[in-house]
Amino acid sequence: MDSVEFNIGTSLVPKITQITAPQTAISPIAKPGTPVTKNAIRTSLRASTIDSAFAALYTITTSGILLSNFLVDLHASPVAIGMLASIPMLINLIQPVGAYLSERVTSRFGYSMRTASPGRLAWIILLLGIVAFSWGLVNSHQMVVLTLGIVLISHLSGSLGSASWLSWMAQLVPHKLRGRFFGLRNSVASLTNLICVPLAGLVISKWYGGAIQGYGVVVFIGILSGMLSLGCQYFQLDINPQQQNALPDGISENKALLIEAIDRDLPNTENTAIKSDSNNSGKSIFKDFNFLMFMLYLGLWTFAVNLSAPFFNYYLLDILDIDVTWVTTYGSLRAGATLVMLILWGKLSDKIGNRPILFFVGIVLAVTSLLWLLVGNSQLDIWLWLPLLHILLGVTWAGIDLCNNNIQLGVAPVRHQAIYFAYAAAVAGVSGALGTTIGGFVTQFSIYGGLLGLFAISFIFRLVALIPLIFVREAKH
């Protein structure tokens, strides 16, 4: 992070070192009288980067391959696996409610703590369930139901704060450095994934009490990491949504932190003009053609991807009967490829924009769904083709995740940003859950070719999903 230079903005730069945080803001760092300087912004972004490592460890232990393998060990059905993938997406419908609530508080940090903490602590209930299962007090079906219930609670809690957190970060990260910063931040998360997934898989497979008890140990570590992740947010400059939403449309990022400087330094006539503009209601989200096209692309893409993506690990673990150690190793290879490419994608997106990358990588990802038709459980597949396929997935998904995030930050206005992010997440959540649910049922019918037929269908839908992206205008740097 020391090598990255974060510039705050334009004409206000010479005055930044003299500016104090707004008096009405509630902030662990930007308290009244505390300078809002470039160093304070750097500290915030470093804290966010460290946060990403702890958050990644929490996510690793409570989702993905480790949680899927836990359900497979409990003999869960494909429908349950599909529900596991659809719940986090469907629960995104609650994000507009969370965004609405977050716009009525005076602290992004305080709101984040109140919404995220209950969901992360809910996994303690699963630990108790694993103990009860080990003692024979509950059966595997009850454990599956309990697990899905905790997933529901956890993601409900997280969804209430997701849009607020993204709006928070949108104000802290300078526009011109978004690609590089989020590339670096995601690289730290990928490095954590690269190191911790195989270690967690080893703990689960070698635990003396069995794989289910081993997963309980891993979840305990994940809960601790999740709370440490929230602790890192204490060291980020806080944002007061009330002041952010008072800014006129077109005010650039980081200016929400500098609203007091506007009040103090601008002439009265200019100040009055800004105040007048800020009182005008912004363009309705349903009249914003650019953002509607982005949501259409995001919804179609999420649907197309989730037709098949949640079933790739199920295909490896259940159909091909490949050991979980191998599958976690493939996940680490994917994380390693992501780690290498994120910073490169970030620098490239800062230079050429996000939309060209999304087009190119989207086509490649569409083709990768067909490549699953060519792999089996032979030694050649296990040692060569599956590792290469996961490396390709890591390279491509690094670009998709980074650029989808960055382009969303660019097409949403500054005022009521959390509301825009929440609607986008809700659309993606519904379409993704619909895709996973349909995919789960398609796998039950051999007339469609089962899982392999589903992979081929996903290829077609992924290509179609790229069409609305043609009409999205990306914000200029």
Notable traits:
477 residues, 70% helix, globular
State the gist of this model.
By secondary structure, the chain is mainly α. It has helices spanning 38-62, 64-73, 78-90, 95-102, 108-121, 123-134, 140-172, 178-206, 211-232, 241-244, 259-265, 268-279, 289-306, 312-319, 324-352, 355-371, 379-411, 417-442, 450-465.
Whole-number count of domains: 1
How far apart the termini lie comes to 21 Å
- Principal-axis shape: globular
What name goes with the CATH superfamily? MFS general substrate transporter like domains
How much of the polypeptide forms β-strand, as a percent range? under 5%
Main sheet summary: none
Radius of gyration: 23 Å
SSE order, one letter for each helix or strand: HHHHHHHHHHHHHHHHHHH
- How much helical structure, as a percent, in the residues? over 70%
Topology, number of strands = 0
> Which CATH first-tier class would you pick?
Mainly Alpha
The CATH topology is what?
Growth Hormone, Chain: A
Averaged pLDDT: 79
Please count the helical segments. Answer: 19
> Which structural class is indicated by helix and strand composition?
mainly alpha
Query: Any guess at the CATH architecture?
Result: Up-down Bundle
- Which segments are poorly predicted (pLDDT under 50) over 5 or more consecutive residues? 1-34, 249-282
